Amino acid sequence: MSAEPLRLAVVTASVRERRFGPTVTRWITAEARAYGRFDLDELDLAEAALPSWITEECPPQVDALRPRLAAADAFLVVTPEYNRGYPASLKTLIDWYIEEWQAKPFGFVSYGGRSGALRSVDHLGSVLCDLHAVPLRDVVSFHDAWEEFDENGRCREPEGAGAAAKVLLDRLTWWGTALRTARRERPYNR
Ligand SMILES: Cc1cc2nc3c(=O)[nH]c(=O)nc-3n(C[C@H](O)[C@H](O)[C@H](O)COP(=O)(O)O)c2cc1C
Known about the structure:
Strands 2-1-3-4-5 form a five-stranded parallel sheet, sandwiched between helices. The two termini are about 25 Å apart. Helix 5 links the parallel strand 4 (about 105-110) and strand 5. The chain has a single domain (about 5-185), classed as Flavodoxin domain (Rossmann fold). It is of the alpha/beta class. Helix 1 (about 20-35) packs across helix 6 (about 160-185). About 35% of the residues are buried. The protein is built from six helices and five strands. Bound molecules: flavin mononucleotide. The site of flavin mononucleotide has 14 residues, from loops.
């Protein structure tokens, strides 16, 4: 396994006012930092403010993000679920780019009510496959998420959640390294 750190882009998908998402992002980002193999890039879609109207000419916000996405070896998406689907902000992100996703792994940390936003993850899987990305099977999912973190944003069951995070980070490392090597040997889709 390569000693070169993997560039991992951590995407916070929710852009709602008073959103819970950043609490979950802070937790998984800390886990990923402690894991020690990643060069992290935190991408908050609320800050990216991508236009949802796709135009032929790229707006500056879209171009500004492109090099960060292109540089990523792997993506870790922190997503809720709204009415059984993933957020429109995430679909907007996905739809603005093409090559930036290809032959790269996607891991998910989902959070929500009883479903733990797992239906979001299912939908994302089929969309990302269509874009030649590699959605991973192992997911970290918080069911009734607001009960899983205390008022200071600390995870109430750090051992169980940490073990699930490790599996996900292991998979991201394996796929991220394997696909980076493969893309360098032979650029995808050319
Ligand atoms: C419009 C809307 C629809 C929702 N639909 C679902 C749902 O289908 N499944 C679920 O588990 N939670 C659902 N929820 C609850 C969200 O999981 C909860 O509000 C969560 O905090 C959303 O993440 P955010 O605060 O980071 O945006 C919904 C919330 C909203 C506002």
